[in-house]
C-alpha cells in the first residue's frame, strides 16, 4: 500500500471510497447471510412445531380414542380433572363396605369356656358373663350338578293307531341339554364380562363344578341377541330414545371379518342402543333414533361431520373433545398459541358456572353470566387471529386457524351447555357406552370373525348396559332371557319416572 503522504487529495478520497464500498459489501453479505439463516430457522421451527403437533397427538391432545395410545404409552397431557384435595381411601362420614356381624347366621357354633383360668382357679361353677362373637362369611362346597329327567308317556290310540305323547315343558327340546341356570352362568362370564370362550368354560368348571363345551359357550351371544330382538327390547328402547329431551351419540371402529366396521350408539343416562355398519350418514340413520329427533330436543356428539345432515334437532358438541384439541395446539407452541389456553380456560369457566347453576336447581344462567362467557369467548377468538395471521404459512398456524374457525363457526353448538342446562359439558355417556367394544375386541384376539358376531354383540350390549343403568345385574338380565321370561324392557325414560 502506498504511503498516504505521497498521495494526492483525490487519491485519498478514492481510496477511502473504495474501503467504504468494501465494508458496505461485507455488511450486505453478512446481512444477507443472517436473513437466510433467520429464514432457515423459521422453516426449521415450523417443521419442529409440525412434528411436535403430530407426534404429541394422543387421547389427551386430540380426538383419538384411548385405545390408540398403546399399552406402553401414557398420554402426555394426563387427565383434565383437577385434584379434589381429598386423601385416598374412605372419606370421613362414609359408612364403608366392611363385613359386619349379622343377627341370623346360618349356623351358630358354641365354644365352651376353659375349665380353669390361667391362674389355676376352676371355672366349672362360674357363670357365663358375656359372649364374644366372631363370624366367618363363606360359600358352601360346590354342589354336584343336578340332572332332571322328564319321562313323557307314549300311548297308542286304539282308534287311529297313532302314537300320542305328552308335551314336554317349554324349553325342553333336546334329548340332553343345559338348563337355564348353567346357561345363565356361562353367558354371564362370556357375554357379560367379556371372558374368552375357552377360559370361560374353565372358569365355570372350577367355580361351579360343571363342564360345558366351548361350542355351547360360543353360541350364547347369538342366542341372547335373538331373544333380545324377538322380545321387543330394541323396538321399545328405540321408541323411548326418540322421545328423550337429550340424546348422546358416538361411534367407534372395530375389526370384523378382516375389515373395519363401526359400532354406533345412541343413549341417555338410562338407555343404550347400539347398531353396526360403516361410518356414513345412512348407517347413522339406520339406528332409527337420531332421525326421529326434532325441535326442542338436543343431540350431544363430537365434531364428526357425519351428523351434520340431522337438521331438525339442536346439536351440542362435546367439550372434552374440544379441550383435547386446544391442548394439542397449545402444547406445540405454548408462547405462540396463547389463544388456545384462553379458549380452554373459557370453556372450563363456562362449565363451572353451568355446573354451579345445576347444583343449585336453576333452570338457566343469568344474562350477566352469559355475557361474561360470551366476552371471554370473543376475546379468545380475537387472540387466535393475532397469534395466527393469514400470512403465516406454518403448519401449526394452519391447524390453529382451522380450529379457531370451527370455534367461530359453531359457537352456538359449542356453548349449548350454557344456554340449555339439561345438556352436559361432555359426551361421556356415549363414550362410556361404546367402551365395551374395545374391551371385547382385546379379549377376542383383536377382532370379530364375522359381521354378524359384531351385530350380536351390539344387541346384547345394548340390553345389558340399559339393564345395568336400572340396577339390574347382568346375571339377572340374562337369566330372564334363558329361563323363558323374555327380555326385561324399560317402560319409561328413567327409573324415577316409573316410581312416580
Topology, pairings included?
Layout: H1 9-55, E1 154-156, E2 163-165, H2 180-192, H3 197-208, H4 214-218, H5 220-230, H6 233-242, E3 246-256, E4 259-267, E5 272-277, H7 281-286, E6 298-301, E7 314-317, H8 319-332, H9 338-359, H10 367-387, H11 395-409, H12 411-414, H13 416-419, H14 428-443, H15 451-469, H16 474-482, H17 495-499
Parallel strand pairs: 3-6, 6-7
Antiparallel strand pairs: 1-2, 3-4, 4-5
Helix pairs in contact: 1-8, 2-3, 2-16, 5-15, 8-9, 8-11, 9-10, 10-11
Which features would summarize this protein structure in a list?
500 residues, alpha/beta, five-stranded mixed β-sheet, 17 helices, 8% strand
How are strands sequenced across the largest beta sheet?
5-4-3-6-7
Note poorly predicted spans.
none
Would you report the number of β strands? Answer: 7
Instruction: State the distance separating the first and last CA atoms.
Output: 110 Å
Give the strand content: 5-15%
Name the average pLDDT. 89
Globally, the shape reads: elongated
Class from helix and strand fractions: alpha/beta
Q: In which range does the helix fraction lie?
A: 40-55%
Q: How would a textbook summarize the main sheet?
A: 5 strands, mixed
Q: Gyration radius, to the nearest Å?
A: 36 Å
Number of helices: 17
Q: Which H/E pattern describes the elements? A: HEEHHHHHEEEHEEHHHHHHHHHH
